[in-house]
Amino acid sequence: METGGLDSDGRQFKSAEEMWREEVGDANRRSQWYKQGVGYWQGVEASVDGVLGGYGHVSEADIKASEAFLNTLLADYFPDAATNRHLVALGTLSLTLLSHGPYTHIAIPCIDML
């Protein structure tokens, strides 16, 4: 499932690996990249509406499409996955999409977001 694309500055990359190599290639750049990310999230209101940039409601259609996409990824990359596997949730879909599973770990960079 390796495909190319554009970053937020419009630069084209042949793969995600190529983009990450360019973005955070050395230890200093990697550290700076993560610090900038945490800085962004520290300035966002600690609510679903804040995290979603003013779009605090996630529609049922979005949840169903995300679930179908996630199931495709799990089937492709983890064909032996059972329903009791641990999932790590990044983002607000964890509340509506992944919280129905038996184990969900949420990774959030700022303590205020918990």
Automatic annotation (TrEMBL):
GO MF annotation list: N-terminal protein N-methyltransferase activity
Keyword tRNA processing on entry: no
Reactions it catalyzes: N-terminal L-alanyl-L-prolyl-L-lysyl-[protein] + 3 S-adenosyl-L-methionine = N-terminal N,N,N-trimethyl-L-alanyl-L-prolyl-L-lysyl-[protein] + 3 S-adenosyl-L-homocysteine + 3 H(+); N-terminal L-seryl-L-prolyl-L-lysyl-[protein] + 3 S-adenosyl-L-methionine = N-terminal N,N,N-trimethyl-L-seryl-L-prolyl-L-lysyl-[protein] + 3 S-adenosyl-L-homocysteine + 3 H(+); N-terminal L-prolyl-L-prolyl-L-lysyl-[protein] + 2 S-adenosyl-L-methionine = N-terminal N,N-dimethyl-L-prolyl-L-prolyl-L-lysyl-[protein] + 2 S-adenosyl-L-homocysteine + 2 H(+)
Enzyme class of the recorded protein, top EC level: transferase
EC number of the protein: 2.1.1.244
One protein family per Pfam: Methyltransf_PK
Keyword entries, A-Z: Methyltransferase, S-adenosyl-L-methionine, Transferase
BP terms from Gene Ontology: methylation
A GO CC annotation given for this chain: cytoplasm
InterPro entries in the cross-refs: MeTrfase_NTM1, SAM-dependent_MTases_sf
Family statement: Belongs to the methyltransferase superfamily. NTM1 family.
Name of the molecule in the record: Alpha N-terminal protein methyltransferase 1
Organism of provenance: Escallonia rubra
